[in-house]
Amino acid sequence: MVTTAQPENGQISGNVLFYSQPEPLSNETHGKIGLRRIDRPFAFAAAAQAVPLTVTEFGVAALTSPIIFAGERRQALAVMGVSGDANMFVQPNGFFEVGVYVPAYIRRYPFVLANDAAREQLVVCIDRAAPMLGDLPDLPFFDPSGQPTEYTKNCIQFCNDYETEVRRTESFISLLTELDLFETRKTTYTPANPDGSPGQPQEIAEYYAVSEERLKALPDDKIRALLDNGALNQIYAHLHSLAGWDKLISIALARQNAAPPAANLN
After folding, report:
1. Which of 129, 233, 235, 240 could join 21 via S-S bond, C-beta 3.0 to 4.6 A?
2. Nearest in space to 237 (alpha carbons), one of 209, 257, 266
3. DSSP strands (E only) in 136-227
């Protein structure tokens, strides 16, 4: 069950990436605010090097981002940068580059569903610190009678659908874990020395990926089951996406070489 009611004792927990001031959405608190159209609308994601991804997004996300699994939970992530914390696809104007897939995790912001521990239910929240929220909004959260606007209803439905996909992704990852298909991988690149000779290899990332050898070694009935439930297509989307590391590294190197040299103040 999803509600916009105020939680008891304020016991709210949930996603944290991007959300610095989550508040349960209510007419009493947010009746006069809503979404404003602002410059640099995706600037909040500019520092996100990797973003959570659901399994149904694998096919389209694989065209622009490596898809990896990380942590004990083997969380699925779309990698969007290799240099520090920078999202290489968010332009200085605050928009994503044309043709780059924007994960649903980013598109649902500033809305999110969070757990109300006291009532054991999900509540609709917004990040009150989001720069696109304010008075005199272009898209109000509530109408004059205090009811959620059509825009708000659509956002809540998007969040509901997203949570459904999160559960589906968890089941997918559990299946891969049960089949012992994960292996640890590292991505490295070798920079060139000033004289053109190869430099020392540098590690970019360490993560989990599906082992093609373990996949091929599965019994025929297991392979057939993966094919029938659609998991095999998602596995291969993930595997094909890993070629995107070369693209990210090439972009990072090109930008690094294009950057003006630091001034010598000595």
Report:
1. 129
2. 209
3. 139-140, 182-189, 202-210
